[in-house]
Amino acid sequence: MSAFPWRNGIDFCALAAALYLLLRWSREARALRLGIAIVGLRVSAFVASQLDLPITSSLVDVATIVAVLALVLIFQPELRRALMRLDIVGRARSGAGGSAAEAVTAAAWTLARARCGALIVIERQDTVAELVSSGVMLNGLVSADLLVAIFQKDSPVHDGAVVIDGDTVRQMGAILPLTQRTAVPHEYGTRHRAAMGLTDRSDALVVVVSEERGAVTLMSAGDIQPVTSEPGLLTAITAADHDKGTAMRLHAMRPANLRLIAAALASKASCSRRRLTA
Question: Which residues form the domain of 108?
Answer without folding.
Answer: 98-251
